[in-house]
Amino acid sequence: MKERAVLVLEDGTVYHGYAFGHRGKNVGEVVFNTAQTGYQEILTDPSYNGQIVVMTYPHQGNYGVNVFDMESNRPWVRGFVAKEFSTYAAGPRAQQSLAEFMSEYGVVGLEGIDTRALVRKIREGGVMKGVIAHASAFGSPTHRFSPADTDALREEARKWTDIDGRDMTPEVSTPLPYQFPTFKGRRRVVVMDFGIKHAQMRYMAEMGFELIVVPGKTSPAQIMALEPHGLFVSNGPGDPSMPRYAHATLWKLMGLVPTFGICLGHQLLGLAAGGRTFKLKFGHRGANHPVKNLLTGKVEITSQNHGYAVDPESLEEFQPTHINLNDGTLEGMAHLRYPVFSVQYHPEACPGPHDSLYLFQRFLEEVDAFNGLTGLPVEKQRTDKLGV
Ligand SMILES: NC(=O)CC[C@H](N)C(=O)O
């Protein structure tokens, strides 16, 4: 018999379903993702630190998990919800089942609930805090949830400190600097790690960049002492207005070195330039968000995962370069005078389409133009041989 489990939202809504993955209980901000595949990349994307992710596609887990699709060294989601999880992992790339993977890393799962109703609720009411609890967290796998149990879980969700207003990046940023495994390149990029997805580094390594990854709290002087040709600002979790040290660092470095920011990196650059960020009602999380490139007029289908956005009205030194065609929010910007640009979405995909990979090429061109390296051959690095 399946073990009972519930999701209780802070507004008191209760969804009854069944336990999956690691047995237990966890609280987080409940968000939804509309990607049909890519659950392993989603689970291991550090930007989800603090969040319970609901997949809108009804069937998850069918192709298992493997060592290649890790976006960091472990999952970061606090809970994972789907209509139905496959217990069987099919396909030549599968090395482990999703159930085993979630159990191994302590990811509490829930299935068998009406995910469409839950997503409609979040779309209407905005993102909310919630708790997933399995019956065994109440002492026995055959436990039946009483109204007193769900009231207590609701209180637990309410009392949990909202990720809005919290710097969630120190937990996921590297504690010490390291070199991403690349050959010694003639173009050195310092990567500010706020919870980076490996795909971003893989693409840059393949393009011939030497990558030195530093903690998000690294000072401008320490960064410049590494003599970078370029600076990369990663994605990451939580409220972008909270890591104030990063705003100060990026403000000081603006114009000194060509800079490319993705997602949280984009938001931090906007804040560094004196701009403002705000929280979206339910965010953008999926693999088919249409974005218009205002410089070319072309539309890109993009991978997204963010709950905040930069207010374009608040920007003085940046011009908008990309907008979201669903809701008109800012998706990309470029500095008016310096080689500094950023996007809110994920050109590295993982999961998602590759329409926006040209941005990494643009970064390479900016780095070369600024450092007098134009004409230098790009030493393509085979990251598959490097074991990354
Ligand atoms: N993927 C990211 O970098 C997310 C940025 C930020 N934490 C947000 O939710 O908007």
Labels describing this entry:
single chain, 388 residues, alpha/beta, Glucose Oxidase, domain 1, Rossmann fold, 2 domains, ten-stranded mixed β-sheet, 9 helices, 19 strands, 30% strand, binds glutamine
Report on the structure:
The chain has 388 residues and is α/β, with parallel strands linked by helices. The chain has two domains: 156 residues, Glucose Oxidase, domain 1; 194 residues, Rossmann fold (3-Layer(aba) Sandwich), CATH 3.40.50.880. It has nine helices and 19 strands. The strands form three sheets. The chain has a ten-stranded mixed β-sheet, with helices on both faces. Strand 18 and strand 19 form a beta hairpin. Helix 7 crosses helix 8. The two termini are 41 Å apart. The mean pLDDT is 96. It binds glutamine. Glutamine binds next to strand 16.
What is the fold's blueprint, element by element?
Elements: E1 4-9, E2 14-21, E3 25-33, H1 39-44, E4 51-55, E5 59-60, E6 79-82, E7 84-85, H2 98-104, E8 108-111, H3 115-125, E9 128-134, H4 147-159, E10 178-179, E11 187-193, H5 198-206, E12 209-215, H6 220-225, E13 230-233, H7 244-253, E14 259-262, H8 264-272, E15 277-293, E16 299-310, E17 318-324, E18 330-335, E19 340-343, H9 358-371
Parallel strand pairs: 3-4, 4-6, 5-7, 6-8, 11-12, 11-13, 13-14, 14-19
Antiparallel strand pairs: 1-2, 1-9, 2-8, 3-9, 10-12, 15-16, 15-17, 17-18, 18-19
Helix pairs in contact: 7-8
